Amino acid sequence: MPTPTRPKAHKKRPQPRRSPIQGRAQATVEAILKAAAQILERHGAEAATTNAIAERAGVSIGSLYQYFTDRDALIDELVRRHIAVMSSVLGEALAGIRDRPLPGAVAQLVAAIVAAHRVAPRLHQALHQCAARQASASIDHFETELELRVGEALRARSELRLAAPELLGAALVQALGGLVRTTLRRDPKRLDDPAMAAAMTGMILGALEHAPRHP
To answer: What pLDDT does 136 receive?
Structure first.
C-alpha cells in the first residue's frame, strides 16, 4: 500500500519580535516601514530586501530584526496599514449608497472602488506582487468584505429579484478591482476620464440587467 501523505502544515504569519513601546523604538519601526514602502513604490517587490530596507531607514540589520522576524513580517505590517487606509476611504465613499436609485448607486460604487485603489497605487501594486508569493490574509479579508457588502446591497434591492446576489457581487468586485488595478498600472490618467467611469458603470448595469432572477 502507498504511504499516506501528511497534509501540509500551514505557515504561521511571522510576528514581530518586540513591541515598540518607547517613543524611540516606535520611531525606528516607522522609519523601517517608510523605507520599505519607498523601495516598493520606486523599485518594486524584488528590490525590497531587508538589507536594502535597513540601509534606507538608516538602521542596522540587527535593529530591523528586533521588530520584524523577516521580510514577510515586515510586508504583512505594510499590507495591514495600507488596507486600513483603503477601508477607511472606501467606507466614506460608500456612505448613503443604499438610499440612492440604482444607476446612481452603481456610479457611486465605481467611484468608491477607484478612490480606494488610488491610495498609494504604486505601493498597492507592489504589495499585490508580494502577496502573490505569500498569502496575505489582510488583502483577502479586504476583498472578501467588499464582495459581501456589494452582495448584501444587491440582495436588499428587491426590485432586482436576483437569484444569486452574493455570487454576482463577488464577480463584479473582482472584475472591477482587476480593471482598476490594470488601468492604474498601465495608464493611470485614464481613471480621470469620465468616459472610463461611465464605461465601468455601464458594465455593472449590463451585468445586472442580464443576471438570473427569481420568478
So the answer is: 65
DSSP label of 15: -
Nearest Cα to 143, choosing from 106, 108, 107, 180?
180
Nearest to 124 by CA among 149, 114, 17: 114
- Residue 190 in grid coordinates: 485614464
Residue 162 main-chain phi, psi, to 5 deg: -70, 140
In percent, how much of the chain has pLDDT > 90?
A: 66
Closest CA to 40 of 82, 11, 69, 68: 82
Left if phi > 0, otherwise alpha if psi is -120 to 50, otherwise beta: which for 211?
Answer: beta
- Maximal C-alpha separation, the chain: 66
pLDDT value, residue 126:
87
pTM as predicted: 0.78
Helix, coil or strand: residue 109: helix
Which cell goes with 35? 523605507
Phi, psi of 151 (to 5 degrees): -60, -40
Compute the distance between CA of residue 82 and CA of residue 137 in angstroms, rounded to an integer.
Answer: 13
- The confidence score (pLDDT) of residue 121 equals 87
